[in-house]
Predict the 3D structure of the following.
Amino acid sequence: MGEHQTSVVVATRDRRDSLRATLARLTARDSRPVVVVDNGSDDGTPAMVRRDFPQVCLVPLGRNRGAAARNIGVAVASTELVAFADDDSWWDTGALATAEKLFGASPDLGLLAARILVGPDRRLDPTCAEMAAGPLGLDRHGHRRILGFVACGAVVRREAFREVGGFEELLFFLGEEETLALDLAAAGWDLIYAPEVVALHHPGSVERRREARHRLQTRNRLLSSMMHQPWPAVTRQLTDLAGEAITDRHARAALGQALVRFPGAISRRRPLPPGVEKARRAVEEGSELTNGRLGGPPRGKSVLEPDGGEKR
């Protein structure tokens, strides 16, 4: 485990001042490699990075690739592990060294979700509370097993990330974490919540359009279902959304956007192994998974797969 086992990848767009503060924090503490992937910013972000942070690897895309911009950052990184950060988040002192030890102790660990503390008062991100209370049990080291995460608080094994293709470009933004988590689990990698690894998130004051975000989340939830879930479950979601669309213009917009992307989703369809599908349902329903393989399945079997399941 070398000194620079982890790179930090930041995807950004039109957040120059916030990014400047984040890069100052990321580069002040140690010399870990930092990769910034710029999604076609118009506010001078690339020029600022080149001028103020010449030690940072800048990848200017020229257009907005959404969450998939992180895939390019991972491809550029040369370290075994990659930690993601947003342009308003960074890693606490010692967090990545702790993450490296956890990955070193677990060769099958593909993704680690950190405890995210929000704002100056360090409030726990609600998603972290959900992960800590998840229904999938503990791995052999006592960490909660998960099927979801928040990207700005995640560390991935580069081999695992690239094996499954990274974040799904079809989704563009919002909900991309769940799809990646399912892909990693289906490929046989472990995913855990490790609260001893801490990421700090200070969201900016810019008010994001809640309605637009809700439409994207609804659209992507349906697309992800089409890529992974059994057809009866997909049909139920589609029927429910179509019913809502009769009277709700936001549901109508989400359905229309999803329909345009249906051919792409079908071409990417990879039904989950039975054990992973059972675990996904347990998370969705909040029910305990009692017969999953707990802790250290050999590579070549899907994580969360019951004994006797199919090999990947």
Summary: The two ends are 28 Å apart (CA to CA). The chain has a mean pLDDT of 90. The chain is about 40% helix and 15% strand.
